[in-house]
Design a protein that fits this description.
This protein is an alpha+beta fold and 152 residues long. It has 3 helices and 5 strands.
Length: 152
């Protein structure tokens, strides 16, 4: 299970909107100085993201609560495969079909880009349909406490 902490922003019938902050694990890695990933991770470090999470355990949550989100590794791998392979395969298939039926390289390139766009649209359509109870959605595992502070 992949886990990430976050803060509850709002709760509605669709799910719980949770804000997470992207952090890099490079500080604890022994190869941090010689790794190119550290530079890439530092670009997105500290960015805030909003995630719509499910609450299958029916935990009592309030705005400002700190929660732990979880996502199954298998779901993460499937989502990655869909996100990367499907557009690539539709691009290659469209370019190969154009190569068979058309001799102009410009039309083959256009067909390849059209296949890529088609694959991305299929992804968007597929993930919008599965929002009701999507296996790719994170779920709230437990609460970590409240982040409520008194402002004077």
């Amino acid at each position: 299970m992949i886990e990430e902490s976050g803060r509850v922003i709002s709760i509605d019938s669709d799910g719980v909107l949770v804000e997470t902050i992207r952090q890099s694990a490079c500080g604890s890695c022994s190869a941090a100085k010689g790794c190119g990933q550290k530079m890439l991770a530092s670009v997105g470090q500290g960015q805030r993201f909003e995630v719509l999470a499910e609450n299958p355990r029916n935990l009592i949550l309030h705005t400002g609560d700190q929660v732990m989100l979880g996502l199954q590794e298998q779901a993460f791998l499937k989502a990655s495969a869909f996100a990367y392979l499907l557009p690539l395969l539709t691009m290659i298939a469209a370019a190969l079909m154009a190569e068979v039926f058309v001799t102009s390289d410009i039309w083959v390139a256009f067909a390849g880009f059209s296949g890529l766009a088609g694959g991305l649209l299929i992804l968007r359509w597929r993930f919008k349909l599965g929002r009701d109870h999507c296996q790719f959605s994170p779920e709230i595992l437990r609460t970590l406490g409240s982040d409520k502070t008194v402002h004077f």
